[in-house]
UniProtKB/TrEMBL annotation:
Domain of life the protein comes from: Bacteria
Biased composition (Pro residues): 362-377
UniProt source species: Pseudidiomarina fusca
GO MF annotation: an example: ATP binding
Protein name, entry field: ABC transporter ATP-binding protein
Amino acid sequence: MLQLDKIHISFGAQHIVRGVSLQLEAGEIGCLLGPSGCGKTTLLRAIAGFQGLQLGTITMANECVSSANQLTPPEQRGIGMVFQDFALFPHLTVAENISFGMRKASAAERRARVDELLTRIGLPGYQKRYPHELSGGQQQRIALARALAPKPRLLLLDEPFSSLDAELRERLAVEVRELLKQEQITALLVTHDQQEAFAMADKAGVMYQGELLQWETPYQLYHQPRHQLVADFIGHGVLLQGTVNASGSLASPLGMLEHPSLLTVPDGTPVSFLVRPDDIVPDANSRLRGRIKARGFRGAHNLYSVQLNSGIEVLTLSPSHEQMNVGDEVGLRPEFDHLVVFAADHCELPGFHDQAPLVRPFTPPVSTAPPAQPLPTSPKAKSA
Ligand SMILES: Nc1ncnc2c1ncn2[C@@H]1O[C@H](COP(=O)(O)OP(=O)(O)OP(=O)(O)O)[C@@H](O)[C@H]1O
């Protein structure tokens, strides 16, 4: 339905979008994540037709709508849009707001569509209300209904929930996904909020300095990040450094990790690997020891930052009814499902997802272990 093929957008000498390719099948919902200024809105504006391309193509339903020498006007693209500040018309009723874009439809068709959408967004009977008589969440639902009323081919949403509080945002994200699926609308959402992206998206991607680093399912972004920056941006975790040795083991601050895929990596290769909080569990009997530096309450779990005796910090989760305190000494045991390993170019080494590594018991001393590797440049803007 929507295909971007190696698109480039520059403002003067500034390259804002660089070689972005992505695809959405009909009815799929995509989400673009990334730090402020990475080019998300510019990309959305290009898809809407408000912004031209220097290179590449944008295709909708097998028809090229943008290229270096073509720009189909926005009104001919059949696109609906919802923006954070996409205010409702204050002097129009809810029904008039929703049917605003249905000029070609008959009065009866408009009425039927308004009734249908109000029911779907859980606001039946609100036809005669005015925007000031609605809560922020209700207004945003109406803005969505207005964008959906003319049955667009594609819906673009730019931070549509960012002015709402976190709880409402999460609820709306789920509701909006259901609505889009019912309406079989293809949609692309830009957000800062990865929980929102996870709740809504079939496909998601992380942009960084104009590049789309990965475009896959939310599950893959979290569990199989293809780039260190994606690993850092999505979810919690730390990147630790290790060195592959001739016997196919990874000498690491957590001990020796063994995995068949390491046998294909040359002896002495420095790598980094991702350690999520659920990859490490507290274990009083473990020889891997550390001290709790910080504790964050996460409802069912506490998230602990633990400084190992080697000086390296890792994160671990523990049920919140088994509370440990800052300053406590703890034992930790690595418990990996799979490994995510990055080479020196920050890109993922394939082959580590199929099975868990064998962790050989940790043997001190670790004082010579390399420190946690600083990321190239941290794009952190986390909400998870
Ligand atoms: N018309 C323009 N002329 C020049 N520079 C622009 C223009 N529009 C955007 N930019 C620049 O392009 C970069 C990307 O902006 P964009 O709004 O796409 O980022 P974003 O990822 O959506 O950020 P945010 O999450 O903060 O909204 C920014 O550095 C911005 O200043």
